[in-house]
Design goal:
Structural class: alpha/beta
Distance between the termini: 41 Å
CATH topology of the largest domain: Rossmann fold
CATH superfamily of the largest domain: P-loop containing nucleotide triphosphate hydrolases
Number of helices: 17
Bound molecules: adenosine monophosphate
CATH architecture of the largest domain: 3-Layer(aba) Sandwich
Helix content: 25-40%
Largest sheet: 7 strands, parallel
Number of domains: 3
């Protein structure tokens, strides 16, 4: 099915053609007709599915169609609330791209930067506002933003809002919206609290559920390297010497780890930048832009900082640390293989992380192939070996390194200690 089958207006069709979009993604196929039909929508989908265009295209169309009946001065008629600054900027960029022939204007507001630039743009008049909750409430209190004319409201990544403690802010914002409006609610997961919140926002919603994990993960070449903790940095440098790695997003568990890895890589003359919650918004944005423009080859990020980062054509995701939550692994590697493109995900696993790897294999219902042919192969034996590994045979050199020259057989299984449970801090 192509975009022609969906009843989109010319200016939008034109923008899509210029972007090279030919066919709608599953969520676009299902959600766009519902939204064009002016129905509320409960969408269970996450970033990477084409969700942004699924709501942005019909919103642009509604606003464009009613343009003539609108007062001369632009008023905010569509509001998109999203949890992070990065997501807000990406959504704003999408509206700009898809709406470039519609004459509609969008503004993005988020915290962590001075408000003057944002308020200046608001005062010029705006049709579509994309906002994070805190800054939105701030600007509403100062009367820079008035929501009386909202016709379309989108709550994006609702579950993340809950995780980040924004739920009360969201409720406050909703209380200021006109009762007569069309509402769209998106969440990657639907825990009870989110379902409760959705009920307070939506009226007789149509439901669309898209589970991108399996197909996305399927398209990604995954591999794992067993390595001792002290050798991880050397292995990373070794891997990044491969020029076929055009761009790599490297994940670490902590902010400190992200800084450290970036420093080590730069010392090895591999151009890397780090993003995490401790950096200023401007520094984060700059690092992200440089990475998107391929000026920086490697971006080292923590999970929260990388959430929602959308980089077309990202060739590699590298897990410097194995996440203890299997879903985090799926989110991380989903940064590559976007919109049907392939990609590669490499995981560096030390002895203590093997239990996490086991959980991940269980969740994705497959055993990530192990690469054994590398110079930093862990001296600790690899148990739970998959039936198919990338390289089945262990070289003589590796055997010598692993078991020593006198060892005739594999040593008995060691106890790798208790499972440390960490949280994904940022
Ligand atoms: P999203 O889930 O909105 O973050 O979108 C993920 C990525 O898919 C973005 O880079 C979009 O530019 C891209 N994308 C969205 N819809 C399409 C489409 N129909 N065809 C090709 N790429 C798309």
């Amino acid at each position: 099915m192509s975009f022609d089958k969906i009843n989109l207006i010319r200016p939008i069709q034109k923008a899509l053609a210029e972007e090279g979009y030919k066919n709608p993604t599953p969520i676009q196929k299902r959600a766009i007709p519902i939204i064009l039909d002016k129905k509320d929508l409960l969408g269970c989908a996450q970033t990477g599915t084409g969700k942004t265009a699924a709501f942005a295209l019909p919103i642009l169309q509604h606003l464009y169609n009613e343009k003539s009946s609108v007062p001369k001065r632009r008023v905010i008629r569509a509001l998109i609330v999203t949890p992070t600054r990065e997501l807000a900027i990406q959504i704003g960029d999408s509206f700009k791209t898809y709406g470039k022939h519609t004459g509609l204007k969008n503004v993005v507001v988020f915290g962590g930067v001075k408000q003057k630039l944002q308020t200046d743009r608001l005062l010029e008049g705006v049709d579509i506002l994309v906002a994070t909750p805190g800054r939105l409430l701030d600007l509403m209190e100062q009367n820079y933003i008035i929501l009386n004319h909202i016709k379309l409201f989108v709550l994006d990544e609702a579950d993340r809002m809950l995780d980040m403690g924004f739920i009360n802010d969201v409720k406050k914002i909703i209380s200021k919206l006109p009762a007569k409006r069309q509402s769209l609610f998106f969440s990657a997961t639907m825990p009870p609290e989110i379902i409760k919140l959705a009920r307070t926002i939506l009226v007789k919603p149509a439901k669309v559920e898209i589970t991108p994990e399996q197909p996305t993960v399927e398209a990604i070449r995954q591999s794992v390297y067993h390595v001792s903790k002290p050798d991880k940095k050397n292995l990373l440098i070794h891997l990044l010497k491969d020029p076929s790695i055009e761009s790599a997003l490297v994940f670490t568990r902590t902010k400190h780890g992200a800084n450290n890895v970036a420093r080590i890589l730069n010392r090895a003359k591999i151009h890397a930048d780090a993003i995490h919650g401790n950096k200023s918004q401007n520094a984060r944005q700059k690092a992200l832009n440089n990475f998107k423009l391929k000026e920086t080859r490697v971006l080292v990020a923590t999970d929260i900082a990388a959430r929602g980062i959308d980089i077309d054509e990202l060739s590699h995701v590298i897990n410097y640390d194995i996440p203890n939550i299997p879903e985090t692994y799926v989110h991380r590697i989903g940064r590559t293989g976007r919109a049907g493109l392939g990609g590669a995900a490499i995981s560096l696993c030390d002895g203590e992380e093997r239990a996490y790897l086991k959980d991940i294999n269980k969740m994705i219902s497959k055993t990530i192939p192990i690469v054994e042919d590398h110079p930093y192969i862990s001296a600790e034996p690899v148990f739970d070996k998959p039936k198919q590994s990338v390289k089945k045979t262990v070289s003589k050199k590796t055997k010598l390194k692993r078991y020593g020259s006198s060892a005739k057989s594999k040593p008995k299984r060691k106890n790798y200690g208790s499972r440390n449970v960490w949280t994904n801090r940022d």
